[in-house]
Task: structure prediction
Amino acid sequence: MSQPPRPLTILCIASFFKGPDFMRECKRQGCRVFLLTSRSLEHEDWPRESLDDIFFVDEPTYEWNIDHLIKAVSYLARKERFDRIVPLDDFDLEKAAALREHLRVPGMGDTRTRYFRDKLSMRMQAQEAGILVPEFVHVLNHPQIHEFTQRVPPPWALKPRMQASAIGIRKIHSAEQLWQVIEQLGDQQSYYLLEQFVPGSVYHADSIVFDREVAFVRVHQYMSTPWEIMHEGGVFRSHTVQYRSADELELRRMNKELLSALGLIRGVSHTEFIKAHEDGRFYFLETSARVGGAHLADMMEASSGINLWAEWAKIESLPPGKPYTLPEVRNEYSGIIISLARQEHPDTSAYSDPEIVWRLKRRHHAGMIVRSPRLERVTELLNQYLERFKTDFFASVPAPEKPTA
Result:
């Protein structure tokens, strides 16, 4: 008599509080689910009812020692056979890749992970595939850097290769300033790239990928660039792009080509592009093999009915050879607005439009998501709320050099 199939065992890695919906859906799919996270996050609202066990790393969030991690998980693997190792944030990708390589667990290894984590690697691979990227140079060989500064006029963006979003990016206005900064970087220089600063509008494409094919993608536009929000202060806003518009169709095409070139086999991706003011063309900025932050997944679920965390979990839970089926998709429009708030618990009850479908509940933050069958109504509300937020809630703090939880 044949034995019933062994349930898949999934190890989730989260150095930030992320992914409760992912873990719940894995459990609903019949998986055994384990979580590895920082001791500092022990008291967060993890879905403990969906976890078979939870393990804590005592090292600081940004300083997990990979060798220690491999030894710790290898010890756990004496009793638990991990079938999937899933990183829930950008900063967990290298950890998961190192563990997969060592334990020989299926999924992206060190090299492919670089394409979704290292800003230099992803640019080089995209450029090799014929995808437009802003001019860039590795901060490594000084004669090459000098040639770049002679050929590409400032300003430039100096970017850390392994950070996420706009964290740690510096705008450089002259060669003199650049060489001063490079000198200050010392032996950290090679961990940076220098890129042409392209003024433009930034878009993001959020995708579900299965068997190397984009099963679902939705395109959105930031109403201010992430760099402006983080470095100049402001209110974060994003909204769905008009369906079947020229911009949406072009970004869907570029997104598909990019993910194919980078070799994402299955999972989710958050990818950013910029439409240059000067020539009106789209350029690739960066990508990731994760769900987008800042509650963008909640915004997308409002317009589409698709929960990226849950669909990712379904894909990871599938037995080999079984196909993935996308749920029915709704095609409405949604938008999000989030601001730091002066108040610890800001009161948004005065915002009562029926289009509001979600409100942010987080200390010193105000935010909401709106949904409508008409894009014009979404952008109208986001513009109205921008002015009201500035009066009612807005606060700002200096841009962080490291990510904050």
About this structure: DSSP finds twelve helices and 16 strands in the chain. The first helix runs from residue 20 to 28. The mean pLDDT is 93. The longest strand covers residues 200-210.
